[in-house]
Amino acid sequence: MSDRFKNKYRIEPARLKNWDYGSNASYFVTICTVDRICFFGNVADDEMILNDLGLIARDCWLQIPDHFPFVKLGGYVVMPNHVHGIVVIDKPDDEPDDEPNDGHNDGRDWIRFVETQNFASLRSEQPKHSEQPEQPQSSSKNKFGPQSKNLASIIRGFKIGVTKNARLINPDFAWQPRFHDHIIRNKKSFYQISEYIINNPLNWSEDQFR
């Protein structure tokens, strides 16, 4: 990714006023560990090497559509102390004419979908949703938290799933209480963000999240 995109998606944006975070749209999210501790492994030779906690984070990320069937996933990467990923909320009652072919891909099948969903969602006048700190659950270790159809609940469920499994290995594991999000508006932005995600290990030495 060229220098002009460095740090562009690394700062926490203000939540978009009057945006319904449960509406059909594509979101780029970043979820950091507490105090940016490198729980998930390390970068060596420009590649991310996942440890056991990193594998848990990866598996829980890929399981999001199993727990939230209205979600599709774009690109993602688990870094030493954070996770980047594209989450697409795709509820059937708002479904576009052209759907992506696969829930896990490099983004090429999402382009018309991204533009159709997001421009339609800009008409929403619903109140914004704020992410709340995750709460421990009593269900089995592979279950996510309570389901609700908005971005905050999706990320909360992912964080709970990782936390419950990770603490079986490292009791000190924890997340930062909130997450960063960016609404993806068009195909140019989708490509830029997808490229940023893919290249994150290459740019680890300059990463603001270190």
Mean pLDDT: 76
**Main sheet: which strands, in order across?**
4-5-1-6
Structural Rg: 16 Å
Number of domains: 1
CATH superfamily: Transposase IS200-like
- Summed up, the helix count is 5
CATH topology: Alpha-Beta Plaits
Largest sheet: 4 strands, antiparallel
Kindly state the number of beta strands. Answer: 6
Order of helices and strands: EEEHHEEHHEH
* N/C terminus separation: 19 Å
Overall CATH class: Alpha Beta
Q: What structural category arises from helix and sheet content?
A: alpha+beta
Helix content: 25-40%
Quote the beta fraction. 15-25%
Query: What's the shape?
Result: globular
CATH architecture: 2-Layer Sandwich
Q: Which segments are poorly predicted (pLDDT under 50) over 5 or more consecutive residues?
A: 1-14, 95-112, 118-147
Structure description:
The protein is an alpha+beta fold and 210 residues long. The chain has a single domain (16-203), classed as 2-Layer Sandwich (Alpha-Beta Plaits), CATH 3.30.70.1290. The protein has helices at residues 52-62, 64-67, 111-121, 151-166, 187-198; strands at 25-32, 41-44, 47-50, 71-78, 82-89, 180-184. The strands form two sheets. It has a four-stranded antiparallel β-sheet with strand order 4-5-1-6. β2 and β3 (47-50) form a beta hairpin. α1 runs antiparallel to α4. The radius of gyration is 16 Å and the shape is globular. The protein starts with 24 loop residues before the first strand and ends in a 12-residue tail after the last helix. Residues 1-14, 95-112 and 118-147 have low confidence and may be disordered.
